[in-house]
Amino acid sequence: MPSAKNLVSWVGACPGEEESAGVNRSKRSPKGNRQMRRILNQAANAAVKHKGSIFEIVYRRLVLRLGHNKTIGAIGHRLCELIWIILHNGVRYEERGPSVCEKAKRVRPSRMIRTLRTLGYRVEPAAIPA
């Protein structure tokens, strides 16, 4: 496969885009390799249940908006892309997990302060007692 998108499309782990006159008709995944898609969904379910994994974090973020089945489909899509990258580039997979959340928690306040300053507000971060 020339790209990760081609693999995902072949597996059928991508949402359908059927639009006519600005009206979306179907969001169903296209026909593809059913066995591979089932295995991806089982792997996504297993990855979501592993505590502290990046997939658990993504699942918790998406499940409220999409529901369980669509979220598992989205995680399966990400897994399929990740599998292609690992096999095609020959890289090792390193779990990012909670370190990503910790980094985001440190970066987000400074980004919010910067945004407020560009909007014209004067913001001074409060000192956190140790």
Give the terminus-to-terminus CA distance.
53 Å
Largest sheet: 2 strands, antiparallel
Shape: extended
Number of domains: 1
Secondary-structure element series: HEEHHHH
Which regions have little confidence, pLDDT < 50, spanning 5+ residues?
Answer: none
Placed side by side, the strands forming the largest sheet appear as 1-2
Give me the secondary-structure category: mainly alpha
Radius of gyration: 19 Å
Could you tell me the mean pLDDT?
82
Number of helices: 5
Strand content is 5-15%
Helix fraction, binned, reads 55-70%
What structural keywords apply?
5 helices, 130 residues, extended, mainly alpha, two-stranded antiparallel sheet, single chain
Write the layout of secondary structure elements.
Blueprint: H1 4-11, E1 18-20, E2 23-26, H2 34-49, H3 54-66, H4 68-89, H5 98-118
Antiparallel strand pairs: 1-2
Helix pairs in contact: 1-4, 2-3, 2-4, 3-4
Describe the structure.
- It is a single chain.
- With 130 residues, the protein is mainly α.
- The protein has one domain (4-94).
- The chain is 62% helix and 5% strand.
- It has five helices and two strands; from the N terminus they run H-E-E-H-H-H-H.
- The protein has helices at residues 4-11, 34-49, 54-66, 68-89, 98-118; strands at residues 18-20, 23-26.
- A two-stranded antiparallel ribbon has the order 1-2.
- Strand 1 (18-20) and strand 2 (23-26) form a beta hairpin.
- Helix 1 crosses helix 4, helix 2 (34-49) crosses helix 4 and helix 3 runs antiparallel to helix 4 (68-89).
- The longest helix has 22 residues, at 68-89.
- The chain is extended.
